[in-house]
Amino acid sequence: MRKTLPERYYLDHFHEFLSFFDGANRVLLTDEALDFIDRFKALDDNAQCIVARAASRKYAVVVVKTFQYQEIQAPIDTLFLLQQLNWFSGVLNGGAYAISQVLTKPHLHQLLLENGIKMPASASKNVLVDTFTEAYSKGAITESGELDSQYLFCEFDAVLRFLLFLYFGHTRGRLNQFSMRDLGVMRTRQDAITDSARFEHREAAVNAYHYANALQQFKSMNTEQKRNFDPVVDKPVYCAIGHDYRDRLLFAMGQFWLSEDNHKALGYLKLAGSDNAREKWIRETYKAGNKDAAKEALEAIIDDPSSDTLLAFAEDFYQRKFGSKRTSVLTDMLREATRVISLDESYIQDVENGVVETHLRENKQAFRTENTLWRTLFGLFFWDWLHGEFGLVSEFDRRPQVLRHNDFYARCGEHIDAHLAEYCNSPDTLYPYLLKQATTHYGKVNSVFMWRQGLLDTIHTFLQYVDIQGLANFLRMMTQDYANLRDGFPDIMVIENDTLWFEEIKAPGDQLRRNQLVTIQRLKQTGFNVGITQVNWYQDPMQPYVVVDIETTGGQGPQHRITEVGMVKMINGEEVARWQSLINPMRHIPYRITQLTGISDDMVVDAPPFEAVADDIDAFTRGCVFVAHNVNFDYGFIKQEFARLARPFRRPKLCTCARMRQHQSGLASYSLKALTRHFGIRLDNHHRALDDALAAAELLKIIQGEG
């Protein structure tokens, strides 16, 4: 059922937003912010409704006639009363960007004309915007004429954006997120909020906002505006948020000036302290011929690295430019792959599963793990810290503060060590703890991992074979540098003869990314066996293919269900097995579908539901390429049925229709019936699953050169 919002929900949300500043965050407010809140509370309800509505608009320029709401009495009169009280002012105070985004094309044309700038009536909105922006920046727009009665500027915009920054922790937050929450569009963490602030004191908040706002302005500027942009970049920063925004601003400005003034660009890049800025400065300095300066900077990083990722760059770049190495560490690691495996080319779009299937056929245990295993372990084990005192400030936060600032261990190191010692000392202690955490918090919104059925199954297997001390050491590493160890984990986990190892899978043309290099190196440091598996493609004549056809109660959509499944297994161009069953869809089969397929309600009343045959279908198709005519239809329905059972279903796919379009171009039709007629293939009972699957199997043989 669709949710509805109460009549004055904008005002209710605005009061909820302002209540955030009644507690720990009040000390962060500037005099202007305190005055804004006090003045707002002094307004009557009618005026508050207008201010709250205006505050929720995307731009600081608002259209007067758009305030006709049931909860607002005499909106025009109230707006101009608020203008006298300095809540609103003339449209020209709104800045070029907001004005150009809100004004209609005719009004923008009129505004230019008011200021003596004639433009042809046929001029596009983009041309008008560019002309207006240039004129505004030169101070040539001074008259607004009658437009001040139709558009107003929100004088409180600057202080509102500061308050939004304090609340959301970034410059993208909008008040409409409260409405999205209430409508159920956005899930939040109301259960995890404590009365805490993002900043320790007012100056930290103000200076962080200065850099965040400057970055936002810079991104919205055109080239000429960027050339003239000269923000203050020496305001002191006191927190990770401030450092982050200052570094991002300096990096963005450095990137811009590289094509305009290399000396100026290098100056901005050198001021920034982020890893990407330091790397960029070294690369550009080396490129400019100042190799000694680049070498000195590299040596400084190697002696005292700020992160594993930057160290990996510095060591590699130093060896290639100032040592004897001619290839990168990433290239070397790929060349030194610990295993080479040949896979049938049908797995080109699903290479990791192809390797898993190969291991399973060799009687090993194999699992797709990638980032999921490690982030789930990390998120569950440290849940109480990540979503407690050091976690979320507002309910809209996704990433816990200690992860966003990458200072988890720095702030909680002693507690982390004690927690690891207590619970990560044996699988018998760790698994029950993880199970308890998962049971307690299942389904709660978090940014570390995704909840899913069977969440702990792979973890349980992993813990049976892992060196528990190595795991504890790696989890500690993740708390020390989560920013660089949150991803890049190997693709699969393999177990054979009680030995566990991980494999990063690389197909021809794949590159090893630096974050993967860093993570793999750290895993190895803590005792994990990690290797690179290089895949080569070939056509395996013994690769099994299962040609599938289904009949349904109707077209795509969750309301329709399967009524019949037919499958033919092919190896080396020969049929080796077939499987067929009617399926009870647990709903009425429409008359038109019965006319098409011949399958009626009476025929399926005693047939098994999909749940009863799911194991058979899973087993019959496992390790096979899933083939069908218009494969996404059949595959999508079967995957949807497995999803209803909270079971995964993933197979490499091949579409006989798509392949026939490549194999036999120029035919009038590529329907199954038309193709069987064209090739003289027998099709007795079209729209019955097994007959259609047998016909599609003949098309597969033609595609594979067997027909």
From TrEMBL:
Q: Which residues form the Exonuclease domain?
A: 544-707
Keywords, alphabetical: Exonuclease, Hydrolase, Nuclease
Q: What class of enzyme is it?
A: transferase
Keyword Hydrolase on entry: yes
Q: From which residue to which does any coiled coil extend?
A: none
Q: What's an example Gene Ontology biological process for this entry?
A: DNA replication proofreading
This one is known as DNA-directed DNA polymerase
Where does this protein come from, organism-wise? Marisediminitalea aggregata
